[in-house]
Amino acid sequence: MHKLPFQLLISRTSLATGQQTITCKELLRDVPGNRQVYDALWDGREVIVKLFSHKVHAKRHFKREWRGLTILNQRQLSAPEPLFYGTTEDSSRALVMEKISESDTADDIFYQTEDVGKRLELMILVSKQLAQQHRKGVLQADMHLGNFLLQGDRVYMTDPGQMHFYAGELDRYKSLAQLALLACYFSDSDTKSAKILLREYGDARQWELGEADESYFEKQLIVQRKKTIRRGLKKALRASKRNIQVKSQTFFAVFSRDFCQDAESADLIRQIDTLMEKGRVLKDGNTCLVSRVTWNGKDVVIKKYKYKGFFHSLRHTIKGSRARRSWLNAQRLGMLSINTPTPLAFIERRRGRFILCSYFIAKFTDAPSLYTVLKSEDTTESQRLEVVGKVKELIGRLGRYKITHGDLKHTNIFVAGDSLILTDLDAMKVHKSNCAYRRGQARDMDRFEKYGQRYLAAENKI
């Protein structure tokens, strides 16, 4: 990796011959062994440079990107202008394009605000650009908000290497399936925003939307959300904009960047057992140790899943550590907008290929458990019934995706104001069939009813 800023010499193989000098100022994205994206200067002009360095696929990836940018501009869609391409001194393929100044990705804007109205306004803008894109026969195979740039109210399309181009307009099925993928950014309980997005998109396409369209769109919301979650879970195990991956011969770990940076993560791994011993131990059982600790001013809970012998280690090496499952299940619930303590990291200690023990770290949640709320003399009967109703709604939301908790007892649900927070996720499962889900749900309910007493009876045992 070059030290920034640096000079990049590109032998031009498009538009004209000769060498061009690019000053790379800032690394915007790095996919090791594949590509790097730089903010740069060319002849006094601000540009973006993409370097494709894969030993086998660089030429194909670069050609696809150049072709995509060219077609987008030919079809008069808002996209960066392709300037030129060529080869660098180390034989990487370089593509130079216009920089859209004073712009932000729709993804950054969406997550920088929690205002539902502003988020909806943003999504309507993007949906109208998507409608224009579909009307001109363009389908983005890797469709997410990070591939849209906003400059004021103007929306630009990026990442053309992942686009498919058709001679005519996209049909309703392809179009609505992609709109559903965009609508997955809303909570699955926010059906109102999803319907508004559908209506705005239909107006932009000048469509009369009927019941069949709405039904198809609703089904696609579930289908596309499942696909989005699968992609998100893969991303949650590697280095990304939000996470860092740390590994050596003796451990493998993933940390949220908001929680730890590289040097801090190595330090935490070294002293994690000492920290847990000095912290406030919440549970010390046969299987796990739970301790509340402070790390860099952050109040966190660390759960250590203990080593219990060779065969126990072998089983969790094959099917994944409990800490890894907790991390992935917390990410899954987050993508479904179901509250759970914020996941911060998971760590696996290894000997060779075998996992010895693992740790899951989450933000401390200062809220009473459902058990405490239902038992409290300060809780009125109507409040108890209201809380149990919310539990019913939560189980229903999980059921839409065939998810069972695996240990659904009252101490694993926190009550934070009007919200429920689900915790202890290492036994959570996503079932492939309705039959398996019903069996899992029955086990969940048997477990839950043991703590339900008369309050569950009032709701017909949920």
Q: TL;DR of this structure?
A:
The chain has 462 residues and is α+β, with helices and mostly antiparallel strands. The protein is built from 13 helices and 22 strands.
Provide a descriptive summary of the structure in words.
The chain is of the alpha+beta class and 462 residues long. It has four domains: 6-98, 2-Layer Sandwich (Phosphorylase Kinase, domain 1), CATH 3.30.200; 104-235, Transferase(Phosphotransferase), domain 1 (Orthogonal Bundle); 243-363, Phosphorylase Kinase, domain 1 (2-Layer Sandwich); 370-458, Transferase(Phosphotransferase), domain 1. 40% of the residues lie in helices and 28% in strands. It has 13 helices and 22 strands. It has helices at 58-74, 106-112, 116-135, 172-183, 191-205, 211-235, 262-278, 310-319, 322-335, 370-375, 381-399, 434-449, 453-458, and strands at residues 6-12, 19-31, 35-42, 45-52, 82-88, 93-98, 104-105, 138-140, 148-151, 154-157, 163-165, 243-247, 251-256, 280-284, 288-295, 298-305, 343-351, 354-363, 403-404, 413-416, 419-422, 429-430. It has a seven-stranded antiparallel sheet, with helices on both faces. The longest helix is centred in the middle third of the chain and has 25 residues, at 211-235. The radius of gyration is 25 Å and the shape is globular. Residues 454-462 have low confidence and may be disordered.
